[in-house]
Fold these 4 entries.
Entry 1:
Amino acid sequence: MATRILKVDPRRPDPDALAEAGAVIRRGGLVAFPTETVYGLGASALDPEAVRRIFAAKGRPADNPLIVHVADAQDLDRVVREVPAVARELMARFWPGPLSLALPRRPEVPDAVTAGLPTVGVRMPDHPVALGLIRAAGVPIAAPSANLSGRPSPTRAEHVLEDLDGRVDLILDGGETGVGLESTFVDLTARPPVLCRPGGITLAQLAEVLGEVRVDPAVLGKEPQGPPRSPGQKYAHYAPRAPVVLVEGPLSRVQERIRSLIAEEAARGRRVGVLASAESRGLYPAPVVVEVGSRSDLARVAANLFAALRSLDAQGADIILAEGFPEEGIGLAIMNRLRKAAGQVVRVGGEGEVPWG
């Protein structure tokens, strides 16, 4: 059966639509909904059977934990055992917003949500539809991104429908999301706190509150040891259907290497797609070139990234060649997603080309 879609005003969503979606959540169903980051696939965080439906719909590995979304700070008492002072500092500054915090879980939180970890990731989304849905449901909502596991995260309702039509009960279509990348995830139970996944709240912003912040090696593309502490750390993520080759290094060398790869792949009869910055768009003689934005506006690049990867698939690319971006600010999150999406990553520089490893 096709999934039902309800269009809602992203600024002033219809209370009747929210009430209908909230009722779906309460009876154990699945609702896809917009947040300021990407579309989420929500179920009651306190209903283990409903949570297991998320994993089944996405084809998501059971050891990949979920994030619990709340609409009010007092809702934390239903899922978190204690909220340290440093967490309250971060919440005062960044909530509602794209920041998830790992805190000690309450026993009422099902193991399916946390992948058996003693912590639970929590956040308060900065989107009227998301907040309205949580309040209408009357329960905290567990929600990963609303896509098939491993695919680029959805920033539009049509992306959700492309992946999950017939697998979920309802999609709230609130238009395009803003940040375009999943939330920053910080483990506050570690000393010092650990950045497990970069996102819209940058490392520098976190350091202003926390002081020292350790960056998990998984952020830089290393495989985590043991169970992942946050979503996005383990397994292939964010990948289009076509294989991705990510080229990193000085821009002029990246452009040169991508042009040579275009010629090599075209000689093999492959339809080449390029994910390019605005500065490079006109330099690539490929049949499909998708621009994600200027290198001077990395927030725009982040917002466009997943839609661009899906567009390259839709335009029939057999292989995707992607430019790397500077890693300052939200660029760290952009490169984290591109490295996770890529089947091959190479670095080019003054001393020649070396593989990523």
Entry 2:
Amino acid sequence: MATDTRDYLSAAQAVAELGITRATLYAYVSRGWLRSVPGKGRRRLYAADDVEKLKARSRARSGHGPVAGSALRWGDPVITSEITEITPAGPRYRGHLATDLSSQGKSFEQVATLLWNGTLAVDNPWQAHPLGLALRRLDDGMRPGADPLECIQFGLATIAAKIQPLGLAGAAEQAFASQLIARLAAVCGLVVDCERVRDAAQQTGVAATLAYALGGAKLPRTRAVVAAIDAALVLCADHELNTSTFTARVVASTGADLCGCLVAALAALSGPQHGGACRRIEGLMAEASRLPQPADVVAARLGRGEQIPGFGHPFYPSGDPRGRALMTLAQQLAPARARPFQEIADAMNASGRPLPALDFGLVALASCLQLVPGAATVLFAIGRTAGWVAHITEQRRQGFLLRPRARYTGKPGPQVVPSEVAASTSPT
């Protein structure tokens, strides 16, 4: 039977289509990737559909692969979500700008409910009491010198081991989440002592709970202080697929329970390139306090070729609106305590560096409120739990396992012909 040459290409055509040499073409044939049939004379013809398949594979490796890889580095969106949109004016929670919600005095509980259900209505502010935890046992388990974030991690692990909320869904899981978040806010007080936790657990509302758990002895628990903490929590509530949120979604896609997802998210947030950046900024401010002028720390660090944490964000080249809002709030609350932060920000701006980001504003606000060291990271963590719960719920609803592929760039192994693989796996 004569070969229908319309379904085949000459060697010159196949080489041109694939952008390869003739030696590579012959290698493809020997590996079984490209069918070849006799043509006129001593010439060979090559299956056009095989050529198309090889072209598609090449496009996937040189096109889609790098696109997917770059998407994991502040690149294009890779997951559909109805929760938060990143805009030049900051994150927009289900159509509401976070900065607007913060300036309007919306509570953290209201914003969490917005992220979870799309409504700002909330029945009652969340309360941690009764904790239902053996506080003395928790206190004995904390290492000396632990910071508030470690208190949250330890408390969450204890709650997860004790309760394990398997099978909860919908309103029942959200009710559990609200109680859990309020308890974690109170457990931050373990950095001081159990009595501080008990005092915090008696408060109504997450912001008031944190004011007691993280506040120093001199902190007046005024309405303005609680409102400032609420504003910070609202600004931290979600930021699309940041590292900790993506981690929560990956774990949620496996079917893990809520506590398991939150444990993973907290671990991701603790890193110095994420929520742990607040501790680096605290170190910056400690160094600045030992210099003649706070702004001298900018010249000193830049002179040593060091980065200055807390400035700039890839999504906000004109400045992070959340950082700007927090800096303004800190200046309104305690102008004198906010002054060193503003002087450093001004020095950075004068040297052509980026504007303050969320982390820098959080440390400035925590300092102005005279909260315990490490409090800024906890404000970040407790605030972000609202977004984590929303994304965990959404990921479960979408119902697919998050499992990206890796493009191998290591040492090449021996070439395997597909036909040989098939032969090796066929029954003998």
Entry 3:
Amino acid sequence: MLERLPGAVLALVLAPSIAVAGPFARVTNGDNDGAGSLRAALESGATKILIARSVDEIVVTETLEYTGTAPLTLFGTGQLIDGSGVEPNSEPVIAVTEGANLSITNLTVDAGGGNEFGPYNRLNQGGGKGIFIAVPEDRTGTVRLNMWNVTVMGTGNHGVHVSDCSLADDCGGGGGGGGDGSPASVAVRAIGVLIEDSGNGKQDADGLRVDERGDGNISFFAINSAFNDVGADGVELDEGNNGDVIINVSNSTFDFNGEYCVVGPFIPGDPCDDDGDPDVDDAFDVDEAGPGSVRGSVRNLTVINNFDEGLDFDEEDEGGFNVRITNVFAQNNADEGIKLSEEDDGNNRARLRGIIADGDLEFEEEDGGLLDIAISGSFVGDDMKLAADDGDPTTIDGFYKERNTIVIDERDFEGDIVEL
């Protein structure tokens, strides 16, 4: 069970937000609408909304929509927002439509996924998105989503979705997808967040998804969080134009993600048909498809029982990856425990320590850049794979340093890799 942050710690984290002045409203009942409701507070122009402790549950029958542009903060006190009555069931429970910054504390958002066959029916789970931020094309600066002690569950679509993409849900995943975006960056901060039983109603619906198709960066910070039982990727960050993906993820769990398309059979043209096999997904997937890099760190992660890769970081244009991966327990994932790849010119650096993986670790450079990989104090239960070959036998393609590490199978190197 995900451990919530102590109240004193949460108060310190929230202190800057509480100090900011702005119109205030108090929610005093759990009604769908009317005086004292959360919907009325959102429509009032208030930017600081507190849900009273006397409110146990808020039951809504249509999307809770915020159309303002000023930053919005929702202060919950442990309530459940029941979105099972939202129609049609593809709609989000909470939607910010004009790219405003959003901060949410101490709330559970349940989109009401499931149907008469049970909440875990992978073919037809109801429920739309949990939390959705739409970024307009003229947005500048940074769009910020901050979540503290938030649970999102029961979604057939993405659990949490920030979309800086003109194609909305047709933006696509992997390879940068398509569409245009704003000049703004997107920053997501998740502290004590649980996303579970989400994305189980359609193909490629993730637990937490960011689409960024303009010139900005994606920044993702998560601590003490869990992304479990998601139909597609537990977390997917898609940066499809100029800009970097910057990650800082620690003390978190990714368990049993990517299963949705396992349920068949698959017919030609079916979205789940991947050359006759189910199109499964990863625990934590990063795709950087324009000029830019993937950089940052992950540490103290449990990455288990996922249906494709554990950590899957890809850079597909000018740029590379520069990451530090520490104390990752990657077990029983269907494909590589950790895979980092770069498909154009770019230098790539990874430092790994304290990895325990029963599958392969794989690092690829498919064009003219260098690999620089070092691993220490680790256990690799299958192959250590490095692939970098620019076709020139006179040049070095990569460097590999290994200390106090056990590799059960092979050190499978392609290209001119120098072992230090």
Entry 4:
Amino acid sequence: MSPTNEKSDSMDGELVSFVIPVYNEENVLDLLFEKISEEMVALAMPYEILFVNDGSDEPCSRKLDDLSDLHREVKVIHLSRNFGQQAAVHAGLERVSGAAAIVMDADLQDDPSGIPSLIKEWENGCDVVYAIRVNRKENILKKTLFHLFYRSCQLLLPFKLPLDAGNFGLIDKKVIRVVTEMPDCHRYYPGLRSWIGFKQTGVRIERLSRYDDRPRVGFVQLFLLGKHAIFSFSQVPLMLFYLLAALAFTAMLGILAFVLYHKLFTGKAIPGWTSILTTICFFGSINAMGIAIVGEYVWRIYVQVLKRPVYITSKEKGFESKEDV
């Protein structure tokens, strides 16, 4: 029997965990649970769904608890406040019990009908199966920014970050263990998932519209997430100053040559204040940028040294029933 078939046979009946961060999305939770359940029942595989309540308002918190009361597959982790999507993903992965975990959003942009494709590749021997987002439904500005972001990461990061692949995807339990043991404070889950290696593949899955057509994450949050992705894995921003220093030195030589030429050969009076101010502004801008970038890395070191928890749990729901079964 081939290794691939051997792994597939050994996975019959394996529990699959779902990790789903939630923030004020009570209106879609019933439908999301229904769609996931339909896919897993069709596959005849046991499953659990870990909803991570990332500081939602009371109506959403109550809805999550109600779901856990109604369905033994549903477990809820309530965080003490809003720690952000990446922290919520980490909280869920630390509590999963399955042989694999599927991370997805709660807003139905991650199409549940793609779940069988992820599981199939896992059964065929892949440790990481990420969803490649196709046919995005966002506006043209967002699609352009996402396009540029992923391709910029290809150039800046020292490892291959799959193009157009976000959180949605499946990871094997050995990958879960490695990801959750990483002590990073500023976490970017797709980057960590790619950095660790193992056998990885992508599955093309259509990116659907958000259920209420109102984006949960604004441009500021997306910018901060992109900054985490780059500064957490790349030293290129620091290396960029070798190039800027060379450009600044070249500009200085050019200005000096221009002044000396007119002083020695043409005899024309050169107004000194223009060149002086231009040079000061040029070097001042470079220094300011350098301080900002170095400060970003220093801040990350400071936060990492503090060793504050990535998240804090206020309560959990549904986990006790698992022990009773």
